[in-house]
Write a structure and sequence with these properties.
Elements lengths: L14 E4 L1 H7 L13 H11 L11 E4 L2 E4 L6 H12 L6 H10 L5 E5 L14 E7 L5 H17 L2 H11 L8 E8 L8 H14 L8 E11 L21 H13 L4 E2 L17 E6 L13 E3 L2 E13 H12 L15 E2 L2 H13 L4 H14 L6 E7 L3 H11 L12 E4 L3 E7 L1
Parallel strand pairs: 6-7
Antiparallel strand pairs: 1-2, 3-4, 4-5, 5-6, 7-8, 7-11, 9-11, 10-11, 12-14, 13-15, 14-15
């Protein structure tokens, strides 16, 4: 399959959630690409309560241990890349094969994730579990004009005027001889987030070796997100209307709808992409969002899912990063923080060092209600790993709203800026943990 790239997450313990039927197909090493089968009884129950919408409860799925490795993109990867790109663009008229070919042409920039050779079947040699790369987004090739038409049409409908003008300038950049790129960061559904940190670290090295800091003007990022129904409000109500007020016009309704979406609670499918927006004000990308529920088959796991009775609908968030923003995030955030799988249900769990993340993750499993033992366990693991320096570890249960507010103010402070070395913190509705080297 070609030379391996230096992307080394924890391997033997990594898990990918797949269904029973897929497990039979996969054997001990390989998970099926689609993962669309669900338990019959569970599916019938969902259809009765929520129509054809699905309950995406990954805790009910079987887990399979497997090894994976990263390789440079090559021509044989195109079919697998097309399958991954279809997850992003769905039914939209985008030449995914042309985009895949362009990504391959950028090699050795970026990487694809494949099964380790010892887990590889002959029929699965070209299976692609994920990809991280980029290519130019503005130009005359069909995939470039397709992406431009898709994004600009959606922006005209869902973005405000200032945001639309920014996107128009990016796609018209070929006339100004500026080079704008689209970042492709895509993985199979439920693929472990642990790959993100080493993959972006390798990507950073590729960019430096290729001297891309002098070639890039803007980066376009298309993120898969979900928005719960309960988090979207346009601020309008049928009650309390002043009789003297005029009815809002079409432009005003569009502005209100765009503002409501922009301020809605967001769940990122690739959790490391949340760092583009949850970074203590380090960067502030221009973005807008559009719904894709109508572009997904109702029996697909990419369609609306229900969690605790609340619909979480699929959207795309399209963001523009300047060159300066991109290299700031690349250097300090995405390549530095690991989102451990059992901690990533909360997008604010951040650990600079992957081994520290594993210590915290393991401690939370065993001592989720004993903060003293949790702190001692993590410290013992740090000592046994022979980390140098002095370490501060604080774990506490959140007992009231005031504590939660104080915790939030601390995590937003300079102490936890993405540039802080060896920082790690985690919090949910009941617990917060701070780990620092000083």
């Amino acid at each position: 399959m070609g030379r391996k790239k230096n992307v080394k997450p924890k391997k033997k313990e990594e898990e990918m959630e797949i269904d029973d039927e897929e497990q039979q197909k996969a054997g001990d090493c390989i998970a099926d690409e689609d993962g669309d089968e669900v338990d019959d009884e569970e599916s019938e129950g969902d259809s009765e309560e929520e129509g054809e919408l699905m309950d995406d409860n990954i805790e009910k799925m079987e887990k399979v241990n497997f090894d994976f490795e990263a390789f440079p993109l090559e021509s044989g990867d195109v079919p697998g890349l097309v399958n991954l790109l279809t997850q992003i663009f769905l039914r939209s008229d985008v030449d995914c094969e042309g985009l895949a070919g362009s990504l391959v042409e950028m090699s050795p920039l970026g990487c694809v994730y494949k099964p380790a050779e010892e887990c590889l079947d002959e029929d699965d040699e070209n299976v692609i579990y994920g990809v991280l790369s980029m290519t130019e987004v503005a130009g005359p090739q069909k995939f470039q004009t397709d992406i431009a038409n898709l994004i600009l049409n959606r922006a005209r409908k869902f973005a405000n005027k200032d945001v639309l003008q920014k996107f128009e300038s990016v796609f018209n950049s070929s006339k100004e001889k500026k080079r704008n790129y689209i970042l492709v960061n895509e993985r199979m559904l439920h693929f472990p987030d642990a790959i993100a940190a080493p993959a972006f670290s390798s990507f950073k090295a590729d960019l430096e070796q290729g001297k891309f800091d002098s070639k890039i003007d803007h980066i376009l990022v298309l993120s898969k997100v979900r928005i719960p129904d309960s988090s979207v409000s346009t601020g309008q109500s049928s009650e309390g209307k002043s009789p003297g007020k005029k009815k809002a016009g079409k432009a005003e309704k569009k502005r209100r709808a765009a503002e409501a979406l922009a301020n809605a609670e967001i769940e990122f499918e690739n959790s490391e992409e949340s760092l583009l927006f949850n970074n203590g004000g380090l960067v502030n990308p221009v973005y807008f969002q559009y719904g894709v529920e109508g572009d997904v088959e109702k029996d697909s796991k990419f369609h609306t899912v229900y969690i605790n009775g609340v619909a979480h609908r699929p959207f795309r968030r399209v963001s523009i990063l300047t060159k300066e923003d991109f290299f700031t995030i690349k250097s300090h955030s995405i390549a530095s923080f690991l989102f451990a799988r059992n901690v990533t249900s909360n997008p604010q769990a951040r650990c600079y060092d992957s081994r520290i993340a594993s210590f915290l993750n393991s401690g939370l499993v065993h001592y989720s209600h004993d903060m003293g033992s949790l702190s001692k366990y993590v410290l013992d693991q740090i000592v046994r790993a022979r980390y140098s320096g002095s370490w501060f570890i604080h774990a506490e249960m959140i007992q009231n709203q005031r504590q939660g507010l104080e915790w939030q103010s601390v995590t937003n402070g300079d102490l936890f800026a993405p540039t802080s070395p060896h920082g790690c913190y985690y919090h949910d509705t009941q617990t917060y943990v701070i780990i620092l080297k000083y």
